[in-house]
Amino acid sequence: MPKRQLQVPTEKKVTLIRLDGIDKTTKEGKHMSYMNERVAFLKGLAEGMEIDSSTKEGKLLLQIIDVLEEFAGEVEEVYEELDELNDAILELDEYVEAIDEDLSELEDDVFDLEDEYEEVECPDCGETLYVDGQIIDKGEEVECPNCGLIIEFSDDCDCEDEDCDCEKSE
Q1: Residue 132 CB-density burial (10 A; 0-12 exposed, 13-18 middle, 19+ buried)
Q2: Among 46, 79, 90, 122, who pairs with 127 as Cys (CB 3.0-4.6 Å)?
Q3: Distance (Å, whole) CA 74 – CA 85
Q4: Do residues 139 and 155 make contact, with C-beta atoms less than 8 angstroms apart?
Q5: Is residue 21 a contact partner of residue 12, using CB atoms and an 8 Å limit?
Q6: Residue-wise pLDDT tens digits, 134-165
Q7: In the predicted model, what is the mean pLDDT of residues 13-27?
Q8: Residue 164: its pLDDT value, please?
Q9: What is the dihedral of CA 117, 123, 124, 130, to 10 degrees?
Q10: pTM higher than 0.85, yes or no?
Q11: Is the CA virtual torsion 153, 157, 158, 159 positive or negative?
Q12: What is the CB neighbour count within 10 angstroms for residue 55?
């Protein structure tokens, strides 16, 4: 059974096709019709040998050649479809690379913002707020957009909780 192998190229529109141990390279969708040439050779050979289609052996050989011709045509169509798929893969690869670059830029922007903002939970409604670190450092107030509670930031802690991770003033 012949082995077929398709490798997605790193350069655009070059496909390596391995069939019957023979490397065939196609460019720009133009296939070298090696199989069609071999079938045409066999057909010409059969005509040159004047194979008699009235004998059992002659019918068999001529039918085999006809089937080979159909297979060669089908294989040629498969190669054309592979070229189309290869083009689509290359186009998608370029698209994915563009998306990856955009995502990378977006991640850089978001991670820069994360460094500037701190996550704060509203003590009243539990809503998560993202507050600029400078507002917290200055001890300013922020209003919760969900419940309207004014949240004050201070270095002093009045809590009696020993598990509190705030800095107690002593």
Answers
A1: middle
A2: 122
A3: 16
A4: yes
A5: no
A6: 888 888 888 998 899 999 887 666 666 666 66
A7: 44
A8: 65
A9: 10
A10: no
A11: positive
A12: 10
The torsion region of residue 49 among left (phi > 0), alpha (psi -120 to 50) and beta comes to alpha
Residue recorded with tokens 């969900």: 146
Euclidean distance between CA atoms 134 and 138, whole angstroms: 6
